């Protein structure tokens, strides 16, 4: 009988040890499994997730075009202050050309689209002492500089103007889809977006486009809506500035008129009204969002 009791006790003890070993094994395995993919202190490895696709590019990456408008996000003015400062500088520089054309504006590029390009480019420059000295008197009241996207450090450099349809791709610069030059048609199709043919929706810095298909070489024309001019001597609103365009024997000139005056233009094709089929409407620069 003592032998049987001893065998029975040994069997129970062995069974108990086996159960404890199994519990310990599965507990350790589960703990190990739960730690897979977790970042250890001091480790640079990323947590494993089935849907992980690598680190996201920074928000201002030149490769991003979140609104798919062809202009990289890094080239757009994303803050309210930058947009307002740009519009004031853009319209102010264009406005000044009516009173005295800057020597910095290349004489060979003085036409309607050339005025837009010149004012756009100069509005993005650093307005330091050297810039004021080059531009001459009359620019002292310009708005503050934009805080980002200065021309000398912008993602596109001097090639500000898109020249083809499609969303932005990192190969666009190499494929010449951006240029330092843009005619009126290019400004309309690739660098601005339609707002309205109704002037109540226009903002300073918007562009007015016209199309005259019978004009073979330059069927598109563009003007800059200044709004309230800081240079005007009278309290008037709705100012527009534009270059008449050059032709053989005529270098053209910069004009400044009110929309209400254009409404009465003797040639109806120049009237900025909804009933004029040649008036395409008001367009806003894509860099303004």
How would you explain this protein's 3D organization?
- The protein is of the alpha+beta class and 289 residues long.
- It has one domain.
- Helix content is 29%, strand content 13%.
- The protein has helices spanning 2-35, 80-99, 112-123, 129-135, 184-191, 259-262; strands at 161-162, 178-179, 192-196, 207-211, 220-227, 239-243, 254-258, 279-285.
- The strands form two sheets. Strands 3-8-4-5-6-7 form a six-stranded antiparallel beta sheet.
- Helix 2 crosses helix 3.
- 30% of the residues are buried.
Q: Order of strands across the biggest sheet?
A: 3-8-4-5-6-7
Q: What is the average per-residue confidence, as pLDDT, rounded to a whole number?
A: 83
Overall shape: it is: globular
**Main sheet summary:** 6 strands, antiparallel
Output the number of helix runs.
Answer: 6
Low-confidence stretches: 25-61
Percent range for β-strand residues: 5-15%
């Amino acid at each position: 009988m003592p032998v049987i009791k001893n065998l029975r006790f040994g069997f129970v003890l062995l069974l108990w040890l086996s159960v404890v070993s199994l519990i310990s094994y599965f507990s350790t395995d589960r703990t190990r499994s739960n730690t897979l993919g977790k970042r250890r202190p001091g480790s640079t490895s990323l947590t494993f997730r089935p849907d992980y696709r690598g680190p996201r590019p920074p928000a201002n990456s030149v490769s991003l075009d979140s609104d798919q408008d062809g202009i990289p996000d890094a080239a757009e003015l994303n803050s309210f202050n930058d947009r307002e400062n740009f519009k004031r500088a853009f319209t102010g520089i264009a406005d000044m050309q009516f009173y005295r054309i800057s020597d910095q504006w290349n004489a060979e590029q003085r036409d309607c689209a050339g005025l837009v390009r010149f004012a756009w480019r100069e509005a993005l420059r650093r307005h330091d002492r050297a810039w004021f000295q080059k531009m001459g008197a009359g620019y002292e009241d310009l708005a503050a500089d934009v805080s980002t996207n200065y021309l000398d450090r912008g993602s596109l450099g001097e090639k500000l103007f898109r020249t083809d349809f499609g969303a932005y791709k990192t190969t666009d610069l190499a494929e010449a889809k951006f240029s330092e030059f843009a005619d009126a048609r290019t400004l309309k199709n690739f660098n601005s977006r339609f707002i309205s043919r109704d002037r109540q929706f226009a903002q300073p810095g918007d562009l007015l486009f016209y199309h005259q298909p019978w004009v073979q070489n330059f069927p598109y024309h563009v003007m800059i809506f200044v709004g309230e001019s800081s240079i005007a001597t009278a309290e008037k609103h709705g100012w527009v500035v534009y270059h008449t365009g050059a032709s053989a024997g005529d270098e053209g000139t910069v004009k400044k008129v009110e929309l209400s005056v254009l409404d009465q233009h003797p040639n109806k094709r120049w009237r900025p009204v909804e009933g004029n089929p040649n008036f395409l409407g008001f367009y806003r620069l894509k860099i303004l969002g």
